[in-house]
Amino acid sequence: MPPSPGSAAASPLFVVFNPAAGSSAEEELAPAVEAACAAAGRRCELLPVAHPRGLADAAREAVRRAHAAGGTVVAAGGDGTINGVAQQVLGSGCRFGVLPRGTFNYFARTHGIPPDLPGALRVLLAEEAMPVQVGLLNERVFLVNASLGLYPRLLEDREAWKSQLGRSRLVAFGAGIKTLLSGHRSLRLTIELQGQSRQVRTPTLFVGNNALQMEQVGLPQARAIDAGHLAGVMLKPVGRASLLALLARGAFGQLGEADQVIHFAFRRLTVTAGAFGSRHIKVATDGEVLRMPLPLRFEVAPQPLMLVRPPGLAQERREARGAGTEGEVAA
CA distances (Å), 303 to each of 64, 89, 107, in order? Predict the structure, then answer.
């Protein structure tokens, strides 16, 4: 039976992508998308982004066109690009599709979207849209995680390494070790959770919205994310040797067993920071580092994204649950 005109499997596609990403794989993206859509009898429009600063404008234009045509907005890129497009799609009433092109692709993987372009196109052209949870940090979307403290610094160091050595998981892991060995300071935070405030000292506060990532590093909050919550993770003040040991635990999927790790589930969390002499603090959302005003409010978005994805639990998540597989310490 053919898809109904209002379904995701019949709607035109408006694809936001970066043709200047610097790899042959990116150069092949546009022809592959056009060929797959032509073979499926689907209309598609490509909206290239010449510079990262133009991502929001391209995404807004894609949403405008998709809304008028009953179409699907598609983000082709890594988690940062997907985040930028999702920021414009959330609340628009448009369906959302993903063609993962990054190093880790946690958002796509946790929802069962294949990392290879032909597989992702098959999903995009055949499956229906389903609601998926979105996290908000001061109204800014995060699909995978948001953090402050040591983790944003780790991401900055990782990008510096990637610019010299290329994008790979091994490079990301090496950059993480270098960051941990170079020293850090603990944050003094006041967190308000369920109407109660407490003061804490921690090298980093990490908030996860990706169940696969939680499962792979061995934290039990994956099921809480499935149930509509976010996962909070804090480290007790520790030295460099302990941080390296925690990195190793995460790589082997055993982070939840460490005494130095505090983890909890929530739907809304407010954070203020002392002893900074500033009204802003450095944070990271889905791998993008920026400064945001205090206080920080982490919460589950009141409405989901309607993501085109396969039904049921992703195969990779079933494997992570069943086998306790090694984790990937990155995002």
Answer: 19, 11, 17
Q: What is the CA angle 115-117-119, rounded to 5?
A: 75
| Each residue's pLDDT tens digit, 230-242 | 999 998 887 767 7
pLDDT tens digit sequence for 72-95: 999 999 988 999 999 999 999 999
Please give the residue that has the higher pLDDT: either 185 or 202: 202
What 3-state DSSP class applies to 32? helix
Closest residue by Cα to residue 206 from 269, 279, 134: 269
* Type of residue found at 59: A
**Residue 262 near residue 234 (C-beta atoms within 8 A):** yes
Contact 272, 188 (CB under 8 A): no
Q: How many helices (H) and strands (E) does the chain have?
A: 12, 18
Query: pLDDT category, 156, cuts 50, 70, 90?
Result: low
Q: Which residue type sits at 292?
A: M
**Would you say residue 40 has pLDDT above 50?**
yes
| Nearest-angstrom CA–CA distance, 73 and 96 | 5
Q: What does the block give as tokens for 259? A: 């005494």
CA distance 168 to 325: 20
Instruction: Convert 38-52 to b/e letters by CB count within 10 Å (16 or more is b).
Output: eebebebbbbebeee
Burial 72-95 (b: 16+ CB within 10 A, else e): bbbbbbbbebbbbbbbbbbebebb
Cis peptide leading into residue 100 (ω within 30°): no
Q: What does the H/E/C string look like for 193-222?
A: ECCEEEEEEECEEEEECCHHHHHHHCCCCH
What pLDDT does 325 receive? 41
Distance of CA 269 to the CA centre of its chain: 19
Separation CA 139–CA 117 (nearest Å): 31
